[in-house]
Amino acid sequence: MNTPRARAYLPTTFLALGIALSLALVVWMLWQAPWDRFGSEGRWLMDHVWGQIALLDLYSGFLLSLALVWLFEPRLRLRLLLTVAVPLLGNPVIAIWLILRWKRLKTMARPPSFD
Predict the structure, then answer these.
(1) Radius of gyration, alpha carbons of the chain
(2) Residue 112 has what pLDDT?
(3) For 3-36, b where at least 16 C-beta lie within 10 A, e where not — what string?
(4) What is the model's pTM?
(5) Where are the alpha helices (DSSP H) in the chain?
(6) What's the CA angle centered on 69, arms 110 and 54, to 5 degrees?
(7) Domain limits, the chain
(8) Where are the transmembrane segments (predicted)?
């Protein structure tokens, strides 16, 4: 599993899995329609230590994702839009951005050839 070919497929596999999970999350959210319980369940979450830790983990991931967006996204308008959209709509927004930028990010991540 340590061959260059296997290592090349891992990022794409992780991207595909992340996209699938993001789509499942959106479908689950729409199916459950939790809008009427948003306030009460948010208060419940903040009243528990693990809820606070989960939110801290979630939003720190958002900020790390946005750091990558600001580093690699060439268009200012899209960077600003994502900065607003990610904290409000979550990881599916980052998944969409990764799909759109995947080839460019892979090209930028390749080490230079010294042939």
Answers:
(1) 17
(2) 66
(3) eeeeeeeeeeeebeebbeebeeeeeeeeeeeeee
(4) 0.64
(5) 4-32, 38-46, 49-72, 76-89, 91-109
(6) 110
(7) 4-109
(8) 12-31, 52-72, 78-100
